[in-house]
Write a structure and sequence with these properties.
- There is one protein chain.
- This protein is of the alpha+beta class.
- It has 4 domains: 135 residues, 2-Layer Sandwich (Nucleotidyltransferase, domain 5); 51 residues, no CATH class; 94 residues, ATPase, nucleotide binding domain (Nucleotidyltransferase, domain 5); 104 residues, Actin, Chain A, domain 4 (Alpha-Beta Complex), CATH 3.90.640.
- Strands 3-2-1-10-11-22 form a 6-stranded mixed β-sheet, sandwiched between helices. Strands 12, 13, 14, 15, 20 and 21 form a 6-stranded mixed β-sheet that branches.
- Helix 5 packs across helix 14 and helix 6 crosses helix 7.
- Bound molecules: adenosine-5'-triphosphate and magnesium ion.
- The site of magnesium ion has 4 residues, from loops.
Protein backbone atom coordinates (compact mmCIF):
# COMPACT_ATOMS: atom_id res chain seq x y z
CA UNK A 1 0.00 0.00 0.00
CA UNK A 2 1.20 3.47 -0.86
CA UNK A 3 1.20 6.24 1.66
CA UNK A 4 2.25 9.74 0.67
CA UNK A 5 3.07 12.51 3.08
CA UNK A 6 0.36 15.13 3.61
CA UNK A 7 2.22 17.67 1.51
CA UNK A 8 2.56 15.40 -1.57
CA UNK A 9 -0.16 15.91 -4.16
CA UNK A 10 -1.04 13.40 -6.79
CA UNK A 11 -0.69 14.48 -10.41
CA UNK A 12 -3.45 13.75 -12.91
CA UNK A 13 -2.76 13.32 -16.64
CA UNK A 14 -5.39 12.85 -19.37
CA UNK A 15 -3.77 12.35 -22.78
CA UNK A 16 -6.42 12.98 -25.45
CA UNK A 17 -6.06 12.74 -29.21
CA UNK A 18 -5.92 16.55 -29.54
CA UNK A 19 -4.63 17.80 -26.23
CA UNK A 20 -3.04 16.55 -23.03
CA UNK A 21 -4.51 17.85 -19.82
CA UNK A 22 -2.36 17.68 -16.69
CA UNK A 23 -2.24 19.16 -13.21
CA UNK A 24 -2.27 18.57 -9.46
CA UNK A 25 -5.20 16.62 -8.02
CA UNK A 26 -7.50 18.93 -6.09
CA UNK A 27 -7.24 21.84 -8.56
CA UNK A 28 -10.17 22.99 -10.70
CA UNK A 29 -8.60 23.07 -14.15
CA UNK A 30 -5.61 21.47 -15.87
CA UNK A 31 -2.84 22.94 -18.02
CA UNK A 32 -3.25 21.95 -21.65
CA UNK A 33 -0.84 21.34 -24.54
CA UNK A 34 -1.05 19.55 -27.92
CA UNK A 35 -0.63 15.78 -27.87
CA UNK A 36 1.23 15.87 -31.21
CA UNK A 37 5.04 15.79 -31.30
CA UNK A 38 7.56 17.11 -33.80
CA UNK A 39 10.28 14.68 -34.92
CA UNK A 40 13.46 15.28 -36.89
CA UNK A 41 15.78 12.54 -38.10
CA UNK A 42 19.53 13.04 -38.26
CA UNK A 43 22.23 10.75 -39.52
CA UNK A 44 25.71 10.57 -38.02
CA UNK A 45 26.98 13.75 -36.41
CA UNK A 46 24.87 16.44 -37.96
CA UNK A 47 23.57 15.10 -41.24
CA UNK A 48 19.89 15.81 -41.70
CA UNK A 49 18.13 12.81 -43.18
CA UNK A 50 15.60 14.97 -44.92
CA UNK A 51 12.38 13.13 -44.43
CA UNK A 52 10.66 10.39 -42.57
CA UNK A 53 10.50 8.28 -45.73
CA UNK A 54 14.25 8.54 -46.26
CA UNK A 55 14.91 7.80 -42.61
CA UNK A 56 12.80 4.76 -42.34
CA UNK A 57 11.86 3.54 -45.81
CA UNK A 58 8.72 1.62 -46.57
CA UNK A 59 8.15 -1.29 -44.22
CA UNK A 60 11.62 -1.01 -42.69
CA UNK A 61 12.74 -0.43 -39.14
CA UNK A 62 14.59 2.77 -38.40
CA UNK A 63 18.28 2.63 -39.39
CA UNK A 64 20.16 2.38 -36.05
CA UNK A 65 22.45 5.25 -37.11
CA UNK A 66 19.49 7.56 -37.57
CA UNK A 67 18.78 9.65 -34.49
CA UNK A 68 15.29 10.87 -33.75
CA UNK A 69 14.87 14.20 -31.96
CA UNK A 70 11.51 15.04 -30.41
CA UNK A 71 9.88 18.43 -29.92
CA UNK A 72 6.88 18.86 -27.66
CA UNK A 73 4.57 21.68 -26.63
CA UNK A 74 2.78 24.30 -28.70
CA UNK A 75 5.79 26.56 -29.38
CA UNK A 76 8.22 23.80 -30.28
CA UNK A 77 5.90 22.17 -32.79
CA UNK A 78 4.90 25.52 -34.29
CA UNK A 79 8.49 26.58 -34.97
CA UNK A 80 9.38 26.31 -38.67
CA UNK A 81 12.03 23.64 -38.27
CA UNK A 82 13.41 22.02 -41.42
CA UNK A 83 12.29 18.46 -42.04
CA UNK A 84 10.28 18.27 -38.81
CA UNK A 85 7.41 15.82 -39.12
CA UNK A 86 4.35 16.26 -36.89
CA UNK A 87 2.90 13.03 -35.55
CA UNK A 88 0.54 11.84 -32.86
CA UNK A 89 1.47 9.04 -30.45
CA UNK A 90 -2.16 7.89 -30.52
CA UNK A 91 -4.18 6.17 -33.19
CA UNK A 92 -7.94 5.88 -32.67
CA UNK A 93 -7.41 6.78 -29.01
CA UNK A 94 -4.84 4.03 -28.31
CA UNK A 95 -1.09 4.45 -27.83
CA UNK A 96 0.79 3.35 -30.95
CA UNK A 97 4.11 5.23 -30.71
CA UNK A 98 5.69 4.63 -27.31
CA UNK A 99 8.73 6.89 -27.81
CA UNK A 100 6.51 9.79 -28.74
CA UNK A 101 4.20 8.99 -25.83
CA UNK A 102 7.08 9.08 -23.36
CA UNK A 103 7.98 12.53 -24.64
CA UNK A 104 4.39 13.70 -24.10
CA UNK A 105 4.38 12.43 -20.49
CA UNK A 106 7.81 13.91 -19.91
CA UNK A 107 6.66 17.27 -21.29
CA UNK A 108 3.65 17.21 -18.96
CA UNK A 109 5.81 16.47 -15.89
CA UNK A 110 8.91 18.53 -16.58
CA UNK A 111 7.77 21.43 -18.76
CA UNK A 112 4.12 22.00 -17.90
CA UNK A 113 4.03 21.09 -14.21
CA UNK A 114 7.68 21.43 -13.34
CA UNK A 115 7.61 18.37 -11.10
CA UNK A 116 9.84 15.39 -10.58
CA UNK A 117 7.58 12.39 -11.33
CA UNK A 118 9.66 10.32 -8.90
CA UNK A 119 8.09 12.35 -6.10
CA UNK A 120 4.39 12.18 -6.99
CA UNK A 121 1.74 9.49 -7.38
CA UNK A 122 0.44 9.70 -10.95
CA UNK A 123 -3.19 9.13 -11.90
CA UNK A 124 -3.65 8.42 -15.62
CA UNK A 125 -6.85 8.20 -17.63
CA UNK A 126 -7.45 5.54 -20.29
CA UNK A 127 -10.17 4.87 -22.87
CA UNK A 128 -12.75 2.19 -22.06
CA UNK A 129 -11.47 0.06 -24.95
CA UNK A 130 -7.81 0.17 -23.86
CA UNK A 131 -5.96 -3.14 -24.06
CA UNK A 132 -4.44 -5.01 -21.16
CA UNK A 133 -1.07 -4.95 -22.89
CA UNK A 134 -1.11 -1.16 -23.24
CA UNK A 135 -2.12 -0.45 -19.63
CA UNK A 136 0.58 -2.82 -18.37
CA UNK A 137 3.22 -1.16 -20.50
CA UNK A 138 2.04 2.28 -19.36
CA UNK A 139 2.48 1.18 -15.72
CA UNK A 140 5.89 -0.28 -16.47
CA UNK A 141 7.08 2.99 -18.03
CA UNK A 142 5.70 5.02 -15.12
CA UNK A 143 7.42 2.85 -12.49
CA UNK A 144 10.62 1.98 -14.29
CA UNK A 145 11.39 5.01 -16.46
CA UNK A 146 9.78 7.85 -14.54
CA UNK A 147 10.32 6.09 -11.17
CA UNK A 148 6.94 7.22 -9.87
CA UNK A 149 6.18 6.05 -6.32
CA UNK A 150 2.56 5.12 -7.17
CA UNK A 151 0.30 4.87 -10.21
CA UNK A 152 -3.42 4.46 -10.85
CA UNK A 153 -5.11 4.05 -14.21
CA UNK A 154 -8.76 4.99 -14.41
CA UNK A 155 -11.33 4.79 -17.14
CA UNK A 156 -12.17 8.11 -18.88
CA UNK A 157 -15.91 7.60 -18.53
CA UNK A 158 -15.70 6.67 -14.85
CA UNK A 159 -13.79 9.90 -14.23
CA UNK A 160 -16.36 11.93 -16.18
CA UNK A 161 -19.10 10.30 -14.15
CA UNK A 162 -17.25 11.26 -10.96
CA UNK A 163 -16.90 14.83 -12.18
CA UNK A 164 -20.71 14.93 -12.41
CA UNK A 165 -20.98 13.40 -8.91
CA UNK A 166 -22.63 10.26 -10.25
CA UNK A 167 -21.75 6.64 -9.59
CA UNK A 168 -24.11 5.48 -12.35
CA UNK A 169 -24.47 7.28 -15.67
CA UNK A 170 -24.31 6.88 -19.41
CA UNK A 171 -21.27 8.84 -20.52
CA UNK A 172 -21.34 10.28 -24.04
CA UNK A 173 -17.82 11.61 -24.71
CA UNK A 174 -17.05 13.12 -28.08
CA UNK A 175 -13.52 14.51 -28.25
CA UNK A 176 -11.04 15.06 -31.04
CA UNK A 177 -10.33 11.54 -32.21
CA UNK A 178 -13.10 9.38 -30.79
CA UNK A 179 -16.73 9.42 -29.76
CA UNK A 180 -17.43 6.86 -27.05
CA UNK A 181 -20.60 5.79 -25.28
CA UNK A 182 -19.85 4.10 -21.96
CA UNK A 183 -22.39 2.96 -19.35
CA UNK A 184 -20.94 3.41 -15.85
CA UNK A 185 -22.57 1.45 -13.03
CA UNK A 186 -21.61 1.92 -9.37
CA UNK A 187 -18.31 3.44 -10.45
CA UNK A 188 -17.37 0.72 -12.97
CA UNK A 189 -17.49 0.93 -16.75
CA UNK A 190 -19.56 -1.80 -18.39
CA UNK A 191 -17.02 -2.71 -21.03
CA UNK A 192 -19.15 -5.00 -23.16
CA UNK A 193 -21.66 -2.20 -23.73
CA UNK A 194 -19.11 0.35 -24.96
CA UNK A 195 -19.82 1.75 -28.42
CA UNK A 196 -17.21 3.84 -30.22
CA UNK A 197 -16.68 5.67 -33.49
CA UNK A 198 -13.94 7.79 -35.05
CA UNK A 199 -16.45 10.39 -36.08
CA UNK A 200 -15.43 13.14 -33.67
CA UNK A 201 -14.03 16.69 -33.75
CA UNK A 202 -11.02 15.99 -35.97
CA UNK A 203 -13.16 14.38 -38.65
CA UNK A 204 -15.38 17.47 -38.75
CA UNK A 205 -12.30 19.71 -39.07
CA UNK A 206 -10.94 17.51 -41.89
CA UNK A 207 -14.31 17.58 -43.64
CA UNK A 208 -14.32 21.38 -43.50
CA UNK A 209 -10.77 21.38 -44.91
CA UNK A 210 -11.93 19.17 -47.77
CA UNK A 211 -14.88 21.46 -48.52
CA UNK A 212 -12.72 24.60 -48.40
CA UNK A 213 -10.17 22.98 -50.73
CA UNK A 214 -12.98 22.07 -53.13
CA UNK A 215 -14.03 25.72 -53.10
CA UNK A 216 -10.38 26.60 -53.80
CA UNK A 217 -10.14 28.57 -50.56
CA UNK A 218 -6.56 28.45 -49.38
CA UNK A 219 -5.97 28.64 -45.66
CA UNK A 220 -2.61 29.93 -44.50
CA UNK A 221 -1.80 29.34 -40.83
CA UNK A 222 -0.32 32.23 -38.84
CA UNK A 223 3.15 30.67 -38.77
CA UNK A 224 3.31 30.30 -42.56
CA UNK A 225 2.75 33.93 -43.43
CA UNK A 226 4.80 37.07 -43.12
CA UNK A 227 2.69 40.04 -42.11
CA UNK A 228 4.12 43.54 -42.26
CA UNK A 229 2.41 46.80 -41.38
CA UNK A 230 2.90 49.11 -44.34
CA UNK A 231 0.67 51.94 -43.05
CA UNK A 232 -1.12 52.15 -39.71
CA UNK A 233 -3.79 49.45 -39.87
CA UNK A 234 -2.70 48.25 -43.33
CA UNK A 235 -0.71 45.10 -43.79
CA UNK A 236 1.05 43.29 -46.58
CA UNK A 237 0.88 39.53 -46.25
CA UNK A 238 3.16 37.10 -48.07
CA UNK A 239 3.11 33.31 -47.71
CA UNK A 240 6.33 31.84 -46.40
CA UNK A 241 7.57 29.15 -48.68
CA UNK A 242 10.34 27.10 -47.12
CA UNK A 243 11.01 24.02 -49.24
CA UNK A 244 12.24 21.99 -46.27
CA UNK A 245 9.03 22.20 -44.27
CA UNK A 246 7.29 18.86 -44.27
CA UNK A 247 3.78 18.21 -45.53
CA UNK A 248 2.77 16.93 -42.07
CA UNK A 249 3.89 20.27 -40.54
CA UNK A 250 1.91 22.33 -43.06
CA UNK A 251 -1.15 20.10 -42.75
CA UNK A 252 -1.12 20.14 -38.94
CA UNK A 253 -1.03 23.93 -38.76
CA UNK A 254 -3.56 24.40 -41.56
CA UNK A 255 -5.97 22.08 -39.75
CA UNK A 256 -5.35 23.98 -36.50
CA UNK A 257 -6.48 27.19 -38.24
CA UNK A 258 -9.56 25.47 -39.65
CA UNK A 259 -10.28 23.99 -36.21
CA UNK A 260 -10.35 27.48 -34.76
CA UNK A 261 -12.75 28.67 -37.48
CA UNK A 262 -14.95 25.63 -36.83
CA UNK A 263 -15.04 26.23 -33.08
CA UNK A 264 -15.98 29.87 -33.41
CA UNK A 265 -18.51 29.72 -36.26
CA UNK A 266 -20.21 26.32 -36.28
CA UNK A 267 -23.37 25.33 -34.45
CA UNK A 268 -25.80 22.49 -34.42
CA UNK A 269 -28.94 23.05 -36.45
CA UNK A 270 -32.13 23.45 -34.49
CA UNK A 271 -34.34 23.24 -37.58
CA UNK A 272 -36.38 20.67 -35.64
CA UNK A 273 -37.57 23.63 -33.54
CA UNK A 274 -38.82 25.35 -36.66
CA UNK A 275 -35.72 27.48 -37.30
CA UNK A 276 -35.13 27.95 -41.03
CA UNK A 277 -31.38 27.54 -41.34
CA UNK A 278 -31.31 28.72 -44.94
CA UNK A 279 -32.12 32.24 -43.71
CA UNK A 280 -29.59 32.31 -40.87
CA UNK A 281 -26.79 34.77 -41.57
CA UNK A 282 -23.29 33.73 -42.59
CA UNK A 283 -20.61 34.41 -40.03
CA UNK A 284 -17.34 36.13 -40.90
CA UNK A 285 -14.16 34.56 -39.54
CA UNK A 286 -10.93 36.51 -39.83
CA UNK A 287 -8.16 34.30 -41.15
CA UNK A 288 -4.56 34.84 -40.01
CA UNK A 289 -3.75 36.56 -43.34
CA UNK A 290 -6.50 39.14 -42.69
CA UNK A 291 -8.93 37.74 -45.28
CA UNK A 292 -12.48 37.14 -44.15
CA UNK A 293 -13.84 33.64 -44.47
CA UNK A 294 -17.61 33.87 -44.81
CA UNK A 295 -18.89 30.75 -43.10
CA UNK A 296 -22.27 29.92 -44.63
CA UNK A 297 -24.35 26.77 -44.53
CA UNK A 298 -21.24 24.68 -43.74
CA UNK A 299 -21.58 25.91 -40.18
CA UNK A 300 -24.71 23.77 -39.82
CA UNK A 301 -24.06 21.03 -42.34
CA UNK A 302 -20.78 19.82 -40.91
CA UNK A 303 -21.89 19.41 -37.25
CA UNK A 304 -25.03 17.80 -38.70
CA UNK A 305 -22.80 14.82 -39.55
CA UNK A 306 -22.86 13.91 -35.85
CA UNK A 307 -26.60 13.18 -36.08
CA UNK A 308 -26.89 12.39 -39.80
CA UNK A 309 -23.56 10.96 -40.91
CA UNK A 310 -22.54 10.23 -44.47
CA UNK A 311 -19.53 8.07 -45.36
CA UNK A 312 -16.40 10.22 -45.08
CA UNK A 313 -13.07 9.72 -46.75
CA UNK A 314 -10.26 8.67 -44.51
CA UNK A 315 -6.89 9.85 -45.74
CA UNK A 316 -5.80 6.73 -47.55
CA UNK A 317 -8.68 4.40 -46.91
CA UNK A 318 -11.97 4.17 -48.78
CA UNK A 319 -14.91 6.14 -47.40
CA UNK A 320 -15.96 4.88 -43.97
CA UNK A 321 -19.66 4.68 -43.11
CA UNK A 322 -20.55 6.00 -39.65
CA UNK A 323 -23.39 5.55 -37.22
CA UNK A 324 -25.31 8.53 -35.84
CA UNK A 325 -24.68 9.52 -32.23
CA UNK A 326 -28.27 8.68 -31.24
CA UNK A 327 -27.94 5.17 -32.74
CA UNK A 328 -24.67 4.61 -30.88
CA UNK A 329 -26.37 5.60 -27.62
CA UNK A 330 -29.30 3.30 -28.35
CA UNK A 331 -26.96 0.41 -29.07
CA UNK A 332 -25.02 0.96 -25.84
CA UNK A 333 -28.22 1.03 -23.75
CA UNK A 334 -29.47 -2.09 -25.50
CA UNK A 335 -26.22 -3.89 -24.66
CA UNK A 336 -26.53 -2.93 -20.97
CA UNK A 337 -28.36 -5.02 -18.43
CA UNK A 338 -32.12 -4.36 -18.62
CA UNK A 339 -32.26 -3.62 -14.85
CA UNK A 340 -30.10 -0.54 -15.14
CA UNK A 341 -31.19 0.91 -18.49
CA UNK A 342 -33.69 3.30 -16.91
CA UNK A 343 -31.13 4.66 -14.49
CA UNK A 344 -28.53 5.05 -17.23
CA UNK A 345 -30.68 7.12 -19.55
CA UNK A 346 -31.95 9.25 -16.69
CA UNK A 347 -28.28 10.17 -16.13
CA UNK A 348 -26.87 10.73 -19.60
CA UNK A 349 -23.75 12.86 -19.16
CA UNK A 350 -22.36 14.78 -22.13
CA UNK A 351 -18.62 15.51 -22.29
CA UNK A 352 -15.72 16.27 -24.67
CA UNK A 353 -14.82 19.25 -26.85
CA UNK A 354 -16.93 18.09 -29.81
CA UNK A 355 -20.12 18.57 -27.75
CA UNK A 356 -19.46 22.30 -27.31
CA UNK A 357 -21.30 23.37 -30.45
CA UNK A 358 -24.15 25.69 -29.62
CA UNK A 359 -27.41 23.74 -29.58
CA UNK A 360 -25.74 20.34 -29.15
CA UNK A 361 -27.60 19.12 -26.06
CA UNK A 362 -31.04 20.30 -27.20
CA UNK A 363 -30.58 18.53 -30.48
CA UNK A 364 -29.29 15.37 -28.80
CA UNK A 365 -32.30 15.33 -26.48
CA UNK A 366 -34.60 15.71 -29.48
CA UNK A 367 -32.87 12.85 -31.31
CA UNK A 368 -33.25 10.54 -28.31
CA UNK A 369 -37.03 10.32 -28.68
CA UNK A 370 -36.83 6.73 -29.85
CA UNK A 371 -34.65 5.82 -26.88
CA UNK A 372 -37.07 7.31 -24.36
CA UNK A 373 -39.93 5.57 -26.11
CA UNK A 374 -38.18 2.22 -25.75
CA UNK A 375 -36.57 2.51 -22.31
CA UNK A 376 -37.99 5.41 -20.30
CA UNK A 377 -37.37 9.06 -19.53
CA UNK A 378 -34.11 10.50 -20.86
CA UNK A 379 -32.33 13.20 -18.90
CA UNK A 380 -29.34 14.86 -20.56
CA UNK A 381 -26.86 16.31 -18.07
CA UNK A 382 -24.79 19.02 -19.76
CA UNK A 383 -22.02 20.32 -17.52
CA UNK A 384 -20.76 23.85 -18.24
CA UNK A 385 -18.20 24.46 -21.00
CA UNK A 386 -15.07 24.10 -18.86
CA UNK A 387 -16.38 20.99 -17.14
CA UNK A 388 -17.34 19.42 -20.46
CA UNK A 389 -13.93 20.21 -21.97
CA UNK A 390 -11.97 18.83 -19.04
CA UNK A 391 -14.43 16.39 -17.45
CA UNK A 392 -12.04 13.42 -17.52
CA UNK A 393 -9.25 15.41 -15.92
CA UNK A 394 -11.62 17.03 -13.36
CA UNK A 395 -12.90 13.57 -12.35
CA UNK A 396 -9.27 12.51 -11.86
CA UNK A 397 -8.58 15.63 -9.84
CA UNK A 398 -11.49 14.80 -7.51
CA UNK A 399 -10.61 11.11 -7.23
CA UNK A 400 -6.89 11.70 -6.68
CA UNK A 401 -7.52 14.00 -3.75
CA UNK A 402 -10.07 11.82 -1.92
CA UNK A 403 -8.75 10.43 1.35
CA UNK A 404 -10.55 7.13 0.76
CA UNK A 405 -8.83 6.71 -2.61
CA UNK A 406 -5.29 6.66 -1.21
CA UNK A 407 -5.41 2.90 -0.55
CA UNK A 408 -6.19 2.24 -4.22
CA UNK A 409 -2.80 3.25 -5.67
CA UNK A 410 -0.46 0.65 -7.14
CA UNK A 411 2.72 1.30 -5.17
CA UNK A 412 6.23 0.85 -6.46
CA UNK A 413 6.91 -1.90 -3.92
CA UNK A 414 3.78 -3.79 -5.05
CA UNK A 415 4.92 -3.38 -8.66
CA UNK A 416 8.31 -4.82 -7.74
CA UNK A 417 6.62 -7.74 -6.02
CA UNK A 418 3.84 -8.59 -8.49
CA UNK A 419 4.85 -6.99 -11.80
CA UNK A 420 2.39 -6.63 -14.68
CA UNK A 421 -0.52 -8.71 -13.22
CA UNK A 422 -0.83 -6.03 -10.52
CA UNK A 423 -2.49 -3.70 -13.02
CA UNK A 424 -5.61 -5.81 -13.67
CA UNK A 425 -5.84 -6.53 -9.95
CA UNK A 426 -5.69 -2.94 -8.71
CA UNK A 427 -7.11 -1.00 -11.65
CA UNK A 428 -10.17 -2.97 -12.74
N1 LIG B 1 -16.12 25.40 -28.78
C1 LIG B 1 -16.01 24.29 -29.51
N2 LIG B 1 -16.92 24.00 -30.47
C2 LIG B 1 -16.81 22.89 -31.21
N3 LIG B 1 -15.81 21.99 -31.11
C3 LIG B 1 -14.88 22.25 -30.17
C4 LIG B 1 -14.93 23.38 -29.32
N4 LIG B 1 -13.86 23.34 -28.48
C5 LIG B 1 -13.18 22.21 -28.80
N5 LIG B 1 -13.78 21.56 -29.81
C6 LIG B 1 -13.34 20.34 -30.49
O1 LIG B 1 -13.20 19.31 -29.56
C7 LIG B 1 -12.14 18.43 -29.94
C8 LIG B 1 -11.21 18.24 -28.78
O2 LIG B 1 -11.96 17.75 -27.70
P1 LIG B 1 -11.27 17.04 -26.45
O3 LIG B 1 -10.27 17.93 -25.84
O4 LIG B 1 -12.39 16.54 -25.61
O5 LIG B 1 -10.55 15.84 -27.20
P2 LIG B 1 -9.34 14.93 -26.69
O6 LIG B 1 -9.59 14.57 -25.27
O7 LIG B 1 -8.04 15.59 -27.00
O8 LIG B 1 -9.48 13.69 -27.66
P3 LIG B 1 -10.15 12.23 -27.44
O9 LIG B 1 -10.87 12.23 -26.13
O10 LIG B 1 -11.06 12.06 -28.61
O11 LIG B 1 -9.00 11.29 -27.49
C9 LIG B 1 -11.46 19.10 -31.14
O12 LIG B 1 -11.88 18.48 -32.35
C10 LIG B 1 -11.95 20.52 -31.06
O13 LIG B 1 -12.00 21.16 -32.33
MG1 LIG C 1 -10.66 13.05 -24.29
Amino acid sequence: MYSAGDDISAVVVDVGTCTTKSGYAGLDTPTVFPTSVGITYTYGKDGMVGSYQKAIGDGEDLDPDVKKTYYTGHNAISYKRQHMEIQSPLSEGLIKDWDAMEHIWSHAFHEQLNINPAEHPILLSEPAYNTRQIRERVSEIMFEKFHTPAVFISNNAVLTSFASCKATSLVVDSGGGVTTIVPVHDGYAIKNAVVKSNLAGNKLTEEYYRILSEKQIKILPYNLIKKQEIKPGEYSVTPIDMPDLTESFKKYHTLETIRDAKESAFRVSTSFLGEDISTVATVPYELPDGNLLEVGSDRFHIPELIFNPIPLNDLEKPATPYQSLQKMIYESVEKSDSDIRKELIANLVVSGGNTLFQGFSDRLYYELGELSHAFGKVKVVTPNVTERKYSVWIGGSILGSLGSFQQMWMSKSEWEEFGRPLVEKKCP
